[in-house]
Known about the structure:
The protein is an alpha+beta fold. It has 13 helices and six strands. The protein starts with 15 loop residues before the first helix and ends in a 6-residue tail after the last helix.
Amino acid sequence: MEPGRPGGRRDMDGDAGRLGSIFRILKAMNRVRSLDALLTLLARETSESIGAERSTVFIFDRARNALWSVVAEGLDRQIWLDADRGLAGHVLRTGATLITPDVSLDLRFDSSVDRSTGFTTRNALTVPIRDTRGEVTGVFQAVNKKGGVFTPGDADFLEAVAAEAGVTIENVSLYEKRRRMLESLIQALAYSIEARDPMTAGHSGNVMKYAGGISRAMGLSGAVVREIEYAALLHDYGKIGVPDAILRKPDPLDAAETEVMRSHVEQTGRILNAIEFEEDLESVARFALEHHERMDGSGYPSGLPGDAISLGGRIIAVADVFEALTAKRHYRDPMSVRDALASIRGEAGAAFDPAVVQALETYLYGGSGDS
Ligand SMILES: [Fe+2]
Ligand SMILES: [Fe+2]
């Protein structure tokens, strides 16, 4: 068989297993948010479907003119290839699929990877991965067809997978970039409020930690935990509008000052509502706005009772008070974890959601109930 893209295309093998693979891949593409997890799945499904010993997904690093293996089955380390060499480099440059029935007869084959890994490549199928503009951004390679050589049908299958992979790699990369940006922005916001008052520095981060711990102890999904953690990190952001004289006052506040201090909640809500969060973070503002609400309706700013308070708000309320009691403040020394928990437990039902208080105990003591 002539190496290179075959002239005549056959239909795919009509194999139900192959169709099953495509369904699993398509389903995963909508669900998987991590590039590594998605490409690992693609490599596994590909190897299984076309009977390859291994599949590798290479991404092109333009700055280094190199291809690196984001997923390399059978290897626990990354492979870096010179983008001008090897079968993968050839496909990267030409953008054309390559079936190589016997690598030892192909001068383009670069045996240095085999020498360093101890693996023996006999034959290979290499296809380009493209972004939505059609530019080649990587290479998908399957090696060592079990019991034969790769067929045009295998090439069709791998090209179809690579086409989907290309679009998804682009989307996931954008999503991850956006997410990293959002996370650093949120972190910067949190630092900016902590910088106002050194005595409460660390409060937001700790409240986030406790709220996350409680949420996980309650068995909430990863997406909801993340939403609650962001809301916890930013819950006091509105304090940015409270004057220093009140924010840093070492003595208890008088009634008028208390009123100003309390306004931080609505301020937090206003600021967070102005941020256009992505869909799975749309409750961040509401959770933060409700962190001073209490189960018996005695809280502020709205005096919401019981279930009218979001679960996120009820969790952050407990995390917030627990942090405040156990951390050193202007006007008193920290309380022990045991005393703080006893104090919060004493208000379960009236101020705090008993299920959330229970989850705090589980988080702190691993569910043994020992306190
Ligand atoms: Fe607060
Ligand atoms: Fe707080």
